Amino acid sequence: MSRRKKIYEGKAKILYEGPEPGTLIQYFKDDATAFNAQKHAIIEGKGVLNNRISEFIMTQLNAIGVPTHFIRRLNMREQLIREVEIIPLEVVVRNVAAGSISKRLGIPEGEILPRSIVEFYYKNDALGDPIVAEEHITAFNWAATQELDDIMALALRINDYLTGMFAAVGIRLIDFKLEFGRLFEGELVRTVLADEISPDSCRLWDARDNNKLDKDRFRQDLGGLSEAYAEVAKRLGIFKDPNIALVES
Question: Among 90, 89, 70, which Cα is nearest to 80's?
């Protein structure tokens, strides 16, 4: 079998050249990182769980008309995706105070926000992904005004859908991170959802007791990361047996 060409390697995923022009293969690693990769560990089965959860969510979003880069899952760790030009922004949608907004604004963790808030962060590890305003984004040409309008509309639509989807299985969607890309189709350029949506990029709390089912378990040394991710997959109906992902990895 010929060796695949690696296009990019990030903290949690590797992108390889795809089988057809305009496609890539996205491979999910078992690496867990926090605090701009200052904290790192290998969590067995994490990549399998994130692959399956992200596949499930991207498929649901495609079905309701949200444009994404996702084409299909290839195996337990890989997805076939469309190649896009990533817009250098992390888009964070917040419903409940947690993480950096609590620290920045002194809002107690767990307090419901007056309305959903969309924040933008400049994707730059060397700078620590600083929070930026729309004026920065357009002034430095990271995204055009129309692209920002599309991103805001898509982010809020995704939030509405995911909030209901998770609530139906007893999970509170506290906040989550999105990334978007430019999909070139001839002369047409579309803004599409890229990257992944998984417990790595969402804060998810059990609706009964606010038990954390996301990467905060790693950030805060709570333990049980893979078990929490498996519980999310089980509730969404992805795995009937919460331990199957670890067996099949």
Answer: 70
